[in-house]
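ugh ok fine here u go
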Amino acid sequence: MKVTKQNLHQLICTKLTRAGLSASHADVVADVLVHADVRGVHSHGAMRVEYYAERISKGGTNVSPNFTFEKTGPCSAVLDGDNGAGHVAARQAMEHAVNMAKENGVAVVGVRRIGHSGALSYYVQQAAREGLIGISVCQSDPMVVPYGGAEAYYGTNPIAFAAPGEENTLITFDMATTVQAWGKILHARSKHEAIPDTWAVDNQGVKTNDPFQVHALLPIAGPKGYGLMMMVDVLSGILLGLPFGNRVSSMYHDLTEGRNLGQLHIVLDPSFFTNLEEFRRNITQTMRDLNSIQPAPGFEKVLYPGQNYDLIEQENEANGIEIVDEVYEYLVSDVIHYNKYDHKDPFAT
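structure:
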């Protein structure tokens, strides 16, 4: 089923407000989810709405949060999200970070006590559209075996980066510290498709290509990905006085409780370090340089990081966003939730 951005945004807003979220917060959540879907990252798009709606309706998302923002120094601050919608708190925190970085050159803003906040690329692009460099890291619930281990300890703990080129161009990079994000497993399940056996292991620690047999994910590049997910956990958990490692709350265990997750935004104003026009020109030149490199056998062109998603976005903007039929059917239905998530083991089928 193909839908326009505007139609998808409205369908998501309607479902979330019917679940109990305010119209203004639903609008922000929908904006983040549509951002993911239009870029082809469906694991972080509309397929998440059913889970969000169930958590909202059961009280696990605070629909009237009291966000508090405290500057702890000229370049540092913490926003407490009061376990409201993570997307809303994360966007507000990035707005503060952008303003602080424009004033002082650097901003580091922690986001405490929030729910799931979706694709991090959304937030770093907020900064890049203001002519700044954006970096964001975020916790997630434990579902990854550490290198050399047989039990899950860390989450997929993503990292995102964006910087502005000339005119309206951006270079964006958003990755999980696992070979693939958990949402990709969910997406494969929704389409009943096999996954590469390099993504995950079953309950015996054996690599599997069956998304319904996944028990834990694998870190990217073995010990290197393991080290990165540790770094993210320190910056977005321990640094903010939040639960860390395998103490991070499960996405599905109890939908009546807030998740108390953490996120960290780092924003840099290039004009405090170099000539801004030269910086943006060189970002654009980097993109051109990479595109001009001779491709290896089997590749048509070398793409700069994130360019594949830019191309998908252009296509979907013009021709509509492809949404899995069962996701679309849920969005247009009168059902708020099917009680399919509460207390569910994230690795259960």
